[in-house]
Amino acid sequence: MFDSIRASFASFFGSDEGVVLAMAPGRVNLIGEYTDFNAGFVLPMTVDRGVYVAIRPRTDQRVCVASVRYHEHIEYELDQVPKVVPGHWSCYVLGVVEELRKLNLVASGFEAVIDGDLNLGAGLSSSAALETATALALKAVFGFEMNRIDVATLCQRVEHHYAHVMCGIMDQFASGLGQSDHALLLDCRSLSHVSIPMQLGDYRVVIISSEVKRALASSAYNERRQQCEEGVALFQQHEASVRALRDVTQDLFDEHGAKLSPTVRQRCQHVISENQRTLDASAALLASDFEHFGALMTASHRSLKDDFEVSCDELDYLVELALGTEGVLGSRMTGAGFGGCTVTLVHKTGLSDLRAKLKAYEARFSLTPEMFVLDGNLEAGVVTDY
Ligand code: ADP
Ligand code: MG
Is 36 a known active-site residue? Predict the structure, then answer.
């Protein structure tokens, strides 16, 4: 990757002299699904692939950015931002440049090349990786101070205002603050966070892409948000300190949950139990109790399927295939659901079996799933050893 992006930079801009390279990885959420907008906990980790930005400052105000993947480039004067096209690769880059420029942190124009080995649109949050890598690249060449939490919230703003995706903070946070050989327990209310060592030994984290595009996701997402708010309104009447479902204990739920409509009750039950599972899973990881960790992952899936109802046949089938494989400790859908990926914890001796089982998925759904076995995980930063 390093050599090829340097070569791309040289071919776009004449030479690669003085180039700085920044990288930010994608992420997978191990557990803690739909807890983020309920002010709860999530437990993502970075993956072993990322987005790279090679950059060099210019002496004038010209900005030139090229994407290797799309064979396209954009060019403009720093203070004359071109029209932003939400979802186009350039919107993420422009967005980061603009947000930093508004803070007077971009001192001049620059040249940059973007490339990466992270899959796009596969649920690994390549958009957050692109935003984060761009911000870290600009930070490196212009030498300003900005802590990683501020980088993450800036990148989240970019996702909201330039890509028009109203995401929570997890993706940008995980990409920018996730450490190698650790998962990241994040409190989505306070943004306090703990890196949890992952000494997996002979176990592996496997991501399997269902190849189902998440068609239903946005309307269902809004509906779930509203249902969670309905739950909060009820519990608030009984306990004034409740501001989000994160504040509702299982006891409070058991006492008053029956007053909710059956659907809203189920939604709340998922969030409340998922929050606890995420904390329990962090403790299990810390204790290297992988059996328990895996059981919590599987319980999370059941809850997302039955109570929160954001899974789909394809994801359920992938989870069942995994759970029927020797050496698998747990498996669940990850991300917003209705498609996207599953994440599985498996002993390395079960990997080939698991891969072979995917044939059954192909036969049943006429979709070819992609399986990624994480080989460690990366952390964002300026790449120096290249
Ligand atoms: P996800 O974040 O789940 O991968 P998104 O649709 O949010 O999916 O973001 C994918 C978009 O991010 C791509 O369509 C592209 O515009 C941009 N992107 C991600 N990685 C790269 C890359 N290496 N080069 C150019 N654009 C990228
Ligand atoms: Mg994204």
Answer: no
Whether this prediction's pTM lies above 0.90 is answered by: yes
Catalytic residue (one of 16, 36, 171, 307)? 171
- Here the CATH number for the domain that contains residue 206 is 3.30.70.890
264 and 350 fall within a common domain: yes
- Which residue's alpha carbon is nearest to atom 20 within ligand 1? 126
The pLDDT tens digits for 121-145 are 888 999 999 999 999 999 999 999 9
| One domain for residues 115 and 232 | no
User: Distance (Å, rounded) from C-alpha 140 to C-alpha 134?
Assistant: 10
**99 shares a domain with 160:** yes
Domain span at 154:
2-196+378-382
For atom 8 of ligand 1, the residue with the nearest CA is 121
What is the DSSP track for 178-223?
Answer: --TTEEEEEETTT--EEEEE---TTEEEEEEE-----TTHHHHHHH
For 141-179, what is each residue's pLDDT tens digit? 999 999 999 999 999 999 999 999 988 999 999 999 999
